[in-house]
Design a protein that fits this description.
It is built from 15 helices and 20 strands. It is α+β, with helices and mostly antiparallel strands and 503 residues long.
Length: 503
């Protein structure tokens, strides 16, 4: 009998999930990621190299990132970590759903360290202890961590991204919405004015649908997150209309984002089929960063670069807000062409009510069909889009008015403009990034949007010469005259096709 007891004792403390002396050994090393330290580091380095995102200078607090095997989701997770790679965090709270241990509360690892092939990560025992004191439903249940992969797979990414940090490992069971809010309130109180705390929320998206169904379901889920539509998110994840295996941690993150006035940005979306080629049963993945508005960030197709002339306090448009503007433009054109009326809209979203200039561009079978806009804001953005949609469809002097037979053939593109600023040296103009306005007196004015350079392939001199000659009614070389006023601006350009791609 004594021999059996000894063998059981040895087995328990030698298994990968054992946590004797509060040192948590890995559960899925060699399965979800390489157990070889050199190979693991090289894999993460390659993910970083391929991630089309620049490190941000924004004050970022929350990152949602996926937790599948690295071969499937590592590339998506890398977008979030690379975006944060210039930051210095001292406390990183990693929140994971529970896949194996059923309970209704929140389990917080109290002290010790977590081990990966890249070394040990110490637990911030002081922060963890204070968090445990906040609510009796916050418990120290090590068994919740014994088989869990969703928290563990983030640790090597953290080790490759940051230095001199501690973690607070947290596993969510199936808490109610009130407990999710209580957890967010607790984090908010403990963070206080600190800017060296990061919250990593581990979650994959929809599971085992075909590619088209998955993308549609994930697109709607992401839009709810972008809009901080917490109640809608909670209701629809509970009913399975939305799917996120980390829906409870994400709910807590949305509570915290609302409380802190954070803005979300989707850095990347993909699914397992993009790697495996199997589009019949896919799992969705996304990286979403929540940041305090201000600063500058450039992230692949989701560009948050802020031009010097952009009005203060105006946040980047979320994908949901962009989709709403496309919807307003399309409904407006259809109603005006069919009925001759101008639709009335009442938008309550403050972001859509900001005063910004905008252009609406129509294409039919990839050919230009109309383009008109306001360079300078003359009212709420959503009404500018409405009015410019009608103008593009009926008032562009280069084209006849759109007919009802063409309505289903139109592709709509919207360009939301930053505030123009004076350009004193044409070398400031970046092709594909800046739109340009030239002015001489009150009778000669022309504008090209930033995408004109991309579509034509013109260099800076060709761009300016064509702008003067064909838009402003000036000699082609008029831009060289120091009396000519040149202004530049940036544009957030999007179409329905862009939004349907999700990423």
């Amino acid at each position: 009998m004594k021999t059996v007891i000894i063998l059981l004792w040895v087995f328990f403390f030698m298994t990968p999930g054992a946590h004797g002396n509060n040192i948590k050994q890995p559960n899925v090393s060699g399965q979800f990621y390489s157990a070889n330290p050199g190979r693991l580091a090289a894999d993460i380095d390659q993910f970083f190299k391929e991630a089309d995102v620049a490190p941000t200078d924004k004050e970022a607090l929350i990152l949602i990132a996926p937790h599948a095997g690295y071969v499937y989701s590592g590339g998506v997770a890398a977008y979030g970590y690379k975006a944060l790679s210039h930051k210095a965090y001292r406390t990183i709270v990693v929140i994971s759903p529970s896949h194996h241990y059923p309970f209704d509360g929140v389990s917080i690892w109290k002290e010790g360290a977590f081990t990966t092939p890249l070394g040990d990560i110490p637990v911030d025992s002081e922060f963890a202890a204070k968090l445990l004191e906040k609510n009796e439903a916050f418990i120290n249940a090590p068994q919740a961590f014994d088989r869990e992969h969703a928290l563990e797979v983030h640790l090597p990414f953290l080790q490759k991204t940051f230095k001199d940090f501690k973690i607070v490992p947290v596993i969510f069971g199936q808490p109610g919405k009130d407990l999710c809010e209580s957890f967010a309130d607790s984090l908010d109180a403990l963070i206080g004015d600190r800017q060296d705390v990061l919250i990593v929320v581990s979650s994959d998206m929809s599971h085992y649908h075909d590619d088209r169904t998955a993308r549609d379901k994930d697109r709607r889920t992401i839009q709810a997150i972008e809009n901080l539509a917490l109640e809608d998110f909670w209701t629809k994840t509970s009913s399975r209309e939305f799917e996120m295996c980390g829906s409870h941690p994400v709910t807590a993150a949305l509570f915290l984002a609302r409380k802190r006035g954070l803005k979300p940005q989707v850095l990347k979306y993909a699914n397992s089929g993009d790697v495996s080629g199997d589009k019949g049963r896919v799992v969705g993945y996304t990286s979403i960063l929540f940041y305090k508005p201000g600063g500058a960030m450039k992230a692949g197709k989701d560009d948050l670069q802020k031009e010097a002339g952009t009005p203060e306090g105006v946040a980047p448009l979320t994908r949901g807000q962009k989709a709403r503007l496309i919807e307003i433009a399309r409904k407006t054109i259809q109603d005006h062409i069919l009925n001759g009326t101008v639709m009335s809209f009442q938008e309550t979203d403050p972001r859509l009510s900001a005063e910004e200039g905008a252009f609406v561009t129509l294409h039919k079978r990839k050919a230009l069909r109309g383009c008109i806009g306001n360079i300078v804001a003359r009212g709420p953005l959503y009404l500018t889009v409405r009015d410019m949609a009608i103008a593009a469809a009926t008032q562009d002097p280069r084209f006849p008015a759109v007919t009802k037979e063409e309505l289903d053939q139109l592709d709509i593109e919207i360009s939301v403009l930053s505030q123009p600023r004076r350009c004193r040296d044409v070398r400031e103009i970046e092709m594909g990034t800046h739109g340009v306005i030239v002015r001489k007196g009150i009778f000669h004015q022309g504008v090209f949007l930033p995408q004109v350079a991309t579509e034509t392939g013109w260099n800076r001199e060709q761009f300016l010469s064509n702008l003067c000659a064909h838009k402003a009614g000036l000699p082609p070389d008029a831009w060289k005259d120091p009396k000519i006023q040149i202004e530049i601006f940036t544009a957030d350009v999007f179409s329905q096709q862009d939004l349907e791609a999700v990423e």
